[in-house]
Design goal:
The structure holds 2 protein chains of 2 kinds. Chain A is built from 10 helices and 3 strands. By secondary structure, chain A is mainly alpha-helical. Chain A has a two-stranded antiparallel ribbon. Classes of the chains: A mainly alpha, B alpha+beta.
Amino acid sequence: MHPAFSVLVLTTLIGAGQGLFLALFTVDVYAALSLLPHPQDGFYTGGNALALVLLGLGLVSSFFHLGHPERGWRAIARWRTSWLSREVIVLPAFMAAVFAYGAGHYLGLTAPLFLVGGVLSVDLTLLIGALAMALCFLLFLCTGMIYACIKFLQEWATPLTPINFLLLGSASGFTLAAAYAAATGTPLAGFLGGWAIVLTLLGLATRGASLLRNARLKHRSSLQSAIGIKHPRITQKAQGAMGGSFNTREFFHGSPAQRVEQTQWAFIVLAFLVPAALLGAGLAGGGSLLLAAAFGVQYLGLMFERWHFFAQARHPQNLYYQAVS
Amino acid sequence: MTQLALVIDLNVCVGCHACVTSCKEWNTSGQAGYLSDDNPYGADPTGCFFNRVQTFEVGEYPKTQTVHFPKSCLHCEDPPCVPVCPTGASHKRAEDGIVLVDYDKCIGCKYCSWACPYGARELDEHQKVMKKCTLCVDRIYDASLPPDQRKPACVLACPTNARLFGDVHDPDSEVSQAIREEGGYQLMPEWGTNPANHYLPRRRTEMRIREEELVRADNPLKIDGKLPKPRLSEPSLDDVTSW
């Protein structure tokens, strides 16, 4: 598949935004359980604003993928069957919930309403946050299933695809949250950075699992099944067009196999190993600059990861476009 | 339930591209607007087509066969491109099974083309909407045309009759008989899309003439008749009777 820049930006930005929200809500729940000291409400408000900026930029970049962005509103129509339609509905709903959650902290709607189990003091903002968390997980599911539901794109058609979107988005968001906490002087960088390292390494495990799976993948379609001629030797002599077509531009990345291989190692290093090391160094007393660098490197690595995700997927229609003439 | 479809006979397709040009001519002139091209007379011509003829060489020289393979939307009975469309622009008509795109609703997200294993859909890169074979839906129901002209443009253009058009759900239709009797098959059956379009395979072409068909004789199979049998040189019934 051809990696469209707008989709790379969209999926990495909203992943980081979702992860950042999850980090803030995690802190909120821990604080409500009295496991962490309550940070100031400004920490939540600022963090939610940052998450909204990321989600908004992702939403804007998604319009660059459309041929007719002015008709984009029509995409809410087929939520019963289309994961893309569901994502189009859930993303703005999640953004609204994040806004409400941030507004709740800004307005100080944090007076405890009731206690659960004698330990968890629930307030209105926490309830809004719980709703936003549900929408956040739903959004990860929608984004992943857009790719995983196409069964003949066998590299994507695996439960690992939505799991990777969840873990990689959460990892980058928690890294950003750690950098944000350190930059604002909130004493939560250790807690958030620790979770960021855990999520980054979990992401490495599941993304590595999908790489191993795809390396052993046997494609079910062949040129024989594509044209229905059962002969072991078939070569294409003409594809019906001299100057290429939509089929050659949309479904081929056009890069040599070596570059795909290099990108794979680049994202393993940049999205997982270097950020984990930088987070470790930053938490060991290296300062907030290392944590910010960890997020920058991880975001760049995730762009490489998403490029590789597309480039590695081999669409069966490519069987019909093996030779120009 | 009607399911209109094409049956394409690979045994007689000669790869002349008449179906391609006829399709382009009809569909670029229709009410749905033109099919855009870039550099149509230049070095690297490219554009939006509903129908392509591809060529494959099967076997190893000198034992090879050249197979010309016309390729267009297969109008699957379970089309994977339809449920993924977020707007409902991509739809399958209940009355005749044609898979169509509503160009006024399409947002050009290209997701349906990802969900088609055959690469049958092509984005019009100037109008920014997804396009595909319509089975000439604006032609086959046109009552102002003579009945024998109410067929897709590609079918009418084919000089070797390699393209048949009809209802594959009607067991007595020309296409159903061809599928049944000539070994019609579907493309990529492994994905369960159940394409309505079928292809007829390459078949050994030979004349079957029995000896008795070359010599005019009564009771040629000699199953029964007057004994002792008359010699071939003797006058036969055809020689002595007339109407």
